[in-house]
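EI: anyone free to look at a 582-residue chain?
SC: sure, send it
EI:
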Amino acid sequence: DYELQQEYQPKRETTATVVPPQQSLPQQTTSLAEKERSLVEMGFTKAQAKTALLECKGDVERATDLLVRTAHAMASFDNMKPPPSIVINEPTVANEVISSVAPPTAPEMSGPKNRRPKSKSPTPPLRKPDVGVGPLPKIPSEVMTKIQSQKSRLSMVVLGHVDAGKSTLMGMVLLKLGLVQKRTVQKYQKQAAEVGKASFHLAWVMDEDESERERGVTMDVATKFFSTPSHDFTLLDAPGHAAFVPNMITGAASAQVGILVVAATRGEFEAGFMLSKLGCVGGQTREHVVLARGLGVSQLIVAVNKLDVVDWSQERFDEIKGMLEPFLVENGFQQKRIQFVPTSGLTGINVKDKPSGDVKLSEWYKGPTLLEAIDSFAPAQRNVDKPLRIIVTDVYMDGKYVTCRCRVVQGVVQTGARLVVLPIGDEAVVSRIGVEGQDFAMAGDTVDMALGNIDLARVMIGCILSHTHLALRPPVRKKMRAKILVMEHLQVPIIRGAQVLLHMHSIDVPAVVSNLIACMKRDGSIQKERPRVLTGGNSAMVEITLQEKVCLESYSDCRALGRFVLRRGGDSIAVGIIEQVL
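SC: here you go
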């Protein structure tokens, strides 16, 4: 430390410090000069190299990392060029939203004699990278041709209160599409009758776990695949019971569109939607709607199920529509993106075919069937030109490879690509994509990916796979500034220091609301700075500190890594998006 400080100390007018003969200061100076020169060759200025080396005590690797990280944090870079090692020329990469951070400086030395004199010329700020975040690998023309020739791909989550008939309705959809054999359904019908659940045979198409079949309740997200003339769908059947809301959050975070299943029978719909006498949410219909919209579901079909029980009553259908539609619009769904479809999951009426003339429904309903409504969903935007982001949702060993069930949320990945597993930091090679050995996977795909050169213990559910280039990786941090919407019927207000559980895609992490910055109006303007508490219905800007480091990105950079839900004591208390990673 003494030699480093002497190397970069400005000359004083006082008596110069005498270096003992046994110290090899000239050799150290030469060594530091070479280190400084190596940083200058990377594109940083001489002053920046000196500052970083002094801060890192001469360690070139740490100094390089410090310079690159600080360069990403600079907001003002007029009349400066970025370092060549982090320049890109790809015009399609999104700009990075970065906060302004001051450049690092050497610490002041204590004592009047050793106090550092002020420099006449200020240290120039570190350079910020050019537009973009790194050199994205180019996509081969043949891969782009395949991408453009594919049908639209959508992930669809099925929501609703427990016992609304979600799994039964989806089982009927798969049966009507020919994806389930009638012989299989007959076998399920016989087995279900033996355990006293004869009407659950179609639900067993989705609920394959024995514990789910015994209890008659969906407990985890079931995944199936089917196609319509316009789209290829990944079907996610989410649980409706209040005890399994975290699993529902995982499903909703993976979807762009959804089906909200409500029961038309008297009392069942009210149990899931109406408020209890204490003013809190009575069922999961309301909670699922708020969570789904906050987690990115933008298009919704409301399937009014079990309408045959009330003799296909138009009055009952209009009553449910009149209560639900204003609530959906109030929570952010556009009215043109909402469809109401009457149906019966057990009988299959109005699922694929129009109701026949002997069914009372045909007298007053002239709209689309359920499958026609599903096929009319608008295609989702697929960000293939952004840095690669892959979320691991399941991990298992398959032969000599670690196989991951993955959801590609951004970018394109090809076989043979070298990826980094975050937040751990280990690297792996993509050996195989999909069961049929696809050449690539792109944003919107859910695939099984075989990884080589990595141990099973180093890949976990919730890990993020990205390109190995430092500038293309998502930030791994534990603090963020976020905009949250507090749930309407919050029982205990949120205060500074509140302990919460943060749910994001496939992970949940303990966290603390470390600061309440401001209450916000609906137009985004500040209503009140530094509030003491947040109550139900408030929109606020807060700072959240996580217990451990995870991959976080602002919502503008990556929507999947920028959305989250806050829960406390088994209740959802807020949904939010990340404004800035700190």
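EI: The chain has a mean pLDDT of 82.
SC: 👍
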